[in-house]
Amino acid sequence: MPKVVSIHSYRGGTGKSNFTANLAAALAMQGNRVGVVDTDVPSPGIHNIFSLEPDAMTETLNSYLWGEAPIEEAAYDVSANAGLSGDGKVLLVPSSVKADDIARILKEGYDVKLLNDGFRSLVKNLQLDYLFIDTHPGLSKETFLSIAISHVLILLLRPDKQDYQGTAVAVDVARQLRVRKMLLAINKVHSRLNFEALKQKIEETYDAPVAGIFPLSEDVVQLASEGVFCMKFPEHPVSQEFQRLAQQIQDTD
Fold it and tell me: What UniProt keywords are attached to this protein's entry (predicted)?
């Protein structure tokens, strides 16, 4: 059965899009067909990680939301860009990076129900095993929808007081929406911190499992979003953590 996986953080700057791209690629490496939708329409960016140039994005999520094209026409096969070979695929639905389009979506908004219809259409017509939703930080109607329809919600946070407080709000909202499976992932963790102690603290604080702890890495920073890290450096500790998390997602009922 296909699974919808939402990646969310209460605050910006957590590395959410990089996280989403790498986890999606890690699942595709295992032979899965993975869709990724960039619903961060005010500040899209995940297309950069998949080396999809704006000039090639003739249709986008915006096109679908405005009734200009079926959502499948906005799904681009970025598997080769990511370095994937074999049966696994990543199909990306980007949001428009054009200033006029961003201004229009912010001014006019859109029918949130269309997102749900679009997600269902992608899963069915593209025969996806997984659909990843890269959300906009914070809480909104779009976020509530993504959380509510998810089989798995991954809340990404940094070991930072502001993130701790924001994540508490996001966890409470997820529970009110009765999310089926909620996992926490801690990103950009300094090497001097005790990872096991941090994991225990986070799990006790939110009463939710920590599925992955990702170290602060200069290697990731150096790549500067020009490619999918776990594909370029599969033996790196960060990549191995993504592989472990991907296996947990596959094992989720």
Answer: ATP-binding, Nucleotide-binding
